[in-house]
Specification:
Helix content is 48%, strand content 11%. By secondary structure, the protein is an alpha/beta fold. Strand 2, helix 2 and strand 3 form a beta-alpha-beta unit.
């Protein structure tokens, strides 16, 4: 399918979770390609810092708007401000996300699921509902990009049930969205962003508990983080601390691959070879056909 977006010059892009990590890298690369960029984030201090950093390199407009993606009204207010300012949105990145407690399903609590899904899944749904009707009405070419994860969209990590379930939900919602847009012949496309690249990505997601709403406070003490998850977290954060410049360059490489993928009309937006993910999906299908749990516990 040909992409509705053929260039970024003078286009308007909105990025939630835009104050750090993949979101900020998308902002940097969009600015380098001549777009006007709106970054949205819940953490005001991080948002202010990202705005200042992006403005220092921009010849186009940079806006920073505090937004809580768990609140439909806050996302609607974001859309109102952007459309009032620019009259259009061409690319929407529903990118805000949080990590989840690493625990067995029965050791998680209701509020773990409410919090993670409110950000990772409902944040995407609220973004679609607030922006897509006006993107369609404007008649402008557009693209909606929702950030998922291989941990959920491809195969869940058994110790990250709440997170994986939320990201699987994002994948299915995006499939439906893309089909529906194509079915009506819209000038707006949709795709899935799979974070990938050199090493683990260290973002604010690893320490997202700092922004967890009081209403979703954990009902009992959090279990110890599994050694597997803790090792991943430590490696990602150490990699960023050791060489910030190299880390940012890796994120920029991912962001550029995503932006190129949009221009190509791709549904899967990622960096590098997706073959291993496809093979994993085939293995899961084989397990289903055999009547087994697709996670495939050895000997079962």
């Amino acid at each position: 399918m040909a992409s509705p977006i053929t260039e970024y010059d003078d286009k308007v892009a909105v990025v939630t979770g835009g104050a750090s990590g993949v979101g900020k890298a998308l902002g940097r690369m969009l600015l380098d390609r001549g777009a006007h960029v709106v970054i949205a984030d819940v953490e005001q201090s991080a948002l202010d810092g990202a705005r200042d950093e992006l403005q220092s390199r921009a010849s186009t407009t940079v806006l920073a708007i505090r937004t809580d993606v768990t609140d439909a009204g806050s996302v609607q207010a974001l859309a109102d401000e952007v459309f009032t300012t620019f009259g259009r949105v061409n690319v929407l990145f529903n990118n805000a996300g949080v990590g989840a407690p690493s625990a067995k399903v029965w050791e998680t609590t209701p509020n773990d699921w409410h919090w993670v899904h409110s950000v990772n899944l409902f944040g995407v749904v609220y973004g679609i509902q607030a922006f897509v009707p006006r993107m369609l009405e404007s008649g402008e070419p557009g693209y909606v990009v929702n950030t998922t994860s291989g941990d959920g969209a491809i195969a869940p990590m058994p110790t990250a049930s709440a997170y994986a379930a939320s990201k699987a939900g994002v994948a299915i919602a995006t499939e439906c969205l893309a089909f529906q847009l194509e079915e009506i012949g819209a000038k707006v496309g949709a795709g899935l962003l799979f974070p990938s690249g050199r090493g683990l990505i260290s973002t604010g997601m690893w320490t997202a508990d700092r922004n967890r709403h009081d209403k979703w406070e954990r009902e009992r003490p959090r279990p110890e983080v599994s050694p597997e998850i803790q090792a991943m977290k430590d490696r990602a954060q150490q990699a960023a601390a050791d060489n910030r410049e190299m880390f940012d360059a890796a994120l920029d490489e991912l962001a550029n691959a995503v932006l190129d993928g949009i221009l190509a009309g791709n549904y899967v937006l990622t960096l590098g070879d997706f073959t291993s993910s496809v093979e994993r999906l085939r293995e899961r299908a084989d397990r289903y056909e055999e009547g087994h749990n697709p996670l495939g516990v050895e000997g079962h």
